[in-house]
Protein: PAN-3 domain-containing protein
Organism: Caenorhabditis remanei
Amino acid sequence: MFFLWLLFFFSFALAEFHSKMIITWGQPANYNSYDNINTDNFWTDCLKQCLEEVDCVRTNTEFCPIGDDAPLFGEDNVIEPYYSINVTISQDGISFWQFNIKCGDDSWLAIRGNQSVCISLRPFPSPYCMNYEAARNMCSVNNGIGLTNSYSDIEELDIRIRWNNSLQEVAINDPNALFSKTKDLWADGICSSGGKNCNVTDDTLQSDFNVINDYAINNRCVFIAPSAPGKRSAECSGTSAYRDTSCLRGAVCRTFPIQ
Ligand SMILES: *[C@@H]1O[C@H](CO)[C@@H](O)[C@H](O)[C@H]1NC(C)=O
Ligand SMILES: *[C@@H]1O[C@H](CO)[C@@H](O)[C@H](O)[C@H]1NC(C)=O
Ligand SMILES: *[C@@H]1O[C@H](CO)[C@@H](O)[C@H](O)[C@H]1NC(C)=O
Ligand SMILES: *[C@@H]1O[C@H](CO)[C@@H](O)[C@H](O)[C@H]1NC(C)=O
């Protein structure tokens, strides 16, 4: 016997700033997780509960059977305009779902533990080298959430490689934008003296890290250098980490997913 049951799945990744529903087909094989919504108004109460629980998508999907005639179940990867879903099935037949947000053209999707974020590397417009406040402002417009930083060493390497590539693209349209100075990237983080106990604003990152090099005399903000790994700090009001030879040329921004 097969009957349709509408499941509303919520992305825990999106729940941080807004909610998104995915409607799909399927019948829960086991209703244990719905015990507390056993009322006449099942559907409304189910929705209400789903709206309240950020992990709704994960608690329910494990109980859904895989049916051939359902448009979603039985497929490993579902790619839609605003999201994609990757499904892996373990040996004992339990399916694990990975809900992925979709990022805008200038951003890419990065997975940070159980969270997904969109990252965009933005170069400053002319006169090119700017301070931390300019970085913060640039990251808060055009679909930006704010500054972010690297979550892991792998993500940092990715950022450094992508930044080098995007500077080459910038140079195609604006040859003056490339010059001999090092082109560093402001990143989320304000530190105490010596580049210690840096705190971030993006809550998908870890606060309280120390930088490997602190070039600031007064207040300290974090940057990433494309030439070498590790986070460094510089004067927040400065436009270069070392006078004359470097330029704080852009920022690591987090952007909203497509919605
Ligand atoms: C989802 O699956 C597709 C196809 O196998 C793969 O290219 C993509 O990287 C996967 N996405 C994630 C976030 O794992
Ligand atoms: C996500 O991971 C963090 C850290 O590992 C954990 O504290 C948190 O409860 C997890 N959130 C969800 C919704 O699973
Ligand atoms: C970062 O946060 C910690 C814990 O709240 C605090 O002790 C430290 O002083 C903060 N660092 C800065 C630079 O504000
Ligand atoms: C980025 O470019 C700089 C300058 O050309 C180079 O020194 C650096 O190794 C490059 N970084 C990466 C991660 O490729």
Remarks:
- The two ends are 36 Å apart (CA to CA).
